[in-house]
Amino acid sequence: LRSRLPQVGTTIFTVMSALAQQCGAINLGQGFPDFDPDPKLPEAVNAAMRAGHNQYPPMAGVPLLREALAEKIEALHGAAYDPGEEITITAGATQALLTAVLAVVHPGDEVIVLTPAYDSYAPAIALAGGVARFVPLDAHYRPDFDAIAAAITPRTRAMLVNSPHNPSGRVWTAQDMQRLGTLLAPTDIVLISDEVYEHMVFDGATHHSAAAYPQLAARSFVVSSFGKTYHVTGWKVGMVAAPRELTREFRKVHQFNVFTVNTPMQHGLAHYLRTQPEAHLNLPAFYQAKRDRFRAGLASTRLRLLPCEGTYFQCADYGAVSDLPEAAFCEWLTREVGVAAIPLSAFHPDPVERSTVRFCFAKREATLDAALERLARL
Ligand code: PMP
Ligand code: GLN
């Protein structure tokens, strides 16, 4: 069999979670909370099941959920999306990203990806027959607009961006968004904006959605995930907002790769959005407290902290501790120290080694403290 994805193995998240389990290590690798969502949310899902919401919903998603999202996006970003024709519910952000790429990228088209990048982007482009043009973020993981401009060619069909950024925790500024708008204005490049960590920004910073910049919104798929916002990564429900013409093409692909997404979760989420419309407003303070606790603990280890402006990830440089390459260091850390982390090399398509690893701090205080106690021995 000739592989469609010859370079691809099993994702680092699966590999590290399995190793953590095998070694009994504290899993700060794969990004997921080790605590439960607000009980009102599963209660709303149970109620939806009991009320008979158990058959296929409309292809684009439960209308109540799309309407609640349209209102939320309008309130947050001043952008009007028609829930009927411009918002689609997806099986997590992963399926939204793949579907968006498949919908717009033709074989041979180029897609700009800023690296380090989430590991699903390059395979999505490959499956569409596209060519990923990797453009490194700068040494501080900020966008390098000269390098991006230099990567644009007549074949550039789309660009993938991600802020708040996994893995670096960087958050794009308003100026970054404006520069991106100016850069893309004379082109017909489609922007795929991965905003799954939209509600995890710290120190009073603001998330700047592509939806908030009309010039960008007009060419963008804005992607998010309920998994991150409501502590339910296993539910695999996400969404994409995009102008009519883009949504029309998106749904042509969506209807044949999942058709639609499970009904009771969507009803439960719609009910929760209606009855707890401010729930996401707690997230910055909630996660900032965890970030600060984790950073304070790490500061007294031999790991060197990198900035963390958003997301639930903290990166650290282990250069003072070990000469091992990142993947080998993470394996050693999991086996010998009992803490699992993710090597940043997993986010680099080209071999890049900066002795940097990523920890997920979406954990209970007791979990973070136990991990810190082990890391203090480094
Ligand atoms: N994009 C980024 C940057 C992510 O970190 C994740 C989650 N790990 C996803 C997309 C996928 O989100 P979901 O679990 O909703 O598919
Ligand atoms: N997005 C999560 C992370 O970055 C993992 C999701 C997955 O396991 N595919 O850790």
From TrEMBL:
Gene name of this polypeptide: ybdL
Family as reported in the entry's similarity comment: Belongs to the class-I pyridoxal-phosphate-dependent aminotransferase family.
Chain segments annotated as coiled-coil in the UniProt record: none
Gene3D superfamilies per record: Aspartate Aminotransferase, domain 1 (3.90.1150.10), Type I PLP-dependent aspartate aminotransferase-like (Major domain) (3.40.640.10)
Top EC class for this record: transferase
GO cellular component terms, semicolon-separated: cytoplasm
Entry's Gene Ontology molecular function annotations: kynurenine-oxoglutarate transaminase activity; pyridoxal phosphate binding
UniProt xrefs under Pfam families: Aminotran_1_2
Aminotransferase class I/classII large domain segment(s): 26-375
Lineage: Bacteria, Pseudomonadati, Pseudomonadota, Betaproteobacteria, Burkholderiales
Source organism (scientific name): Thiomonas delicata
Protein name: Methionine aminotransferase, PLP-dependent
Keywords: Aminotransferase, Pyridoxal phosphate, Transferase
KW tRNA processing (keyword) present: no
EC number: 2.6.1.-
InterPro entries membership: Aminotransferase_I/II_large (IPR004839), Kynurenine-oxoglutarate_AT (IPR051326), PyrdxlP-dep_Trfase (IPR015424), PyrdxlP-dep_Trfase_major (IPR015421), PyrdxlP-dep_Trfase_small (IPR015422)
Protein origin, superkingdom: Bacteria
Cofactors demanded by this protein: pyridoxal 5'-phosphate
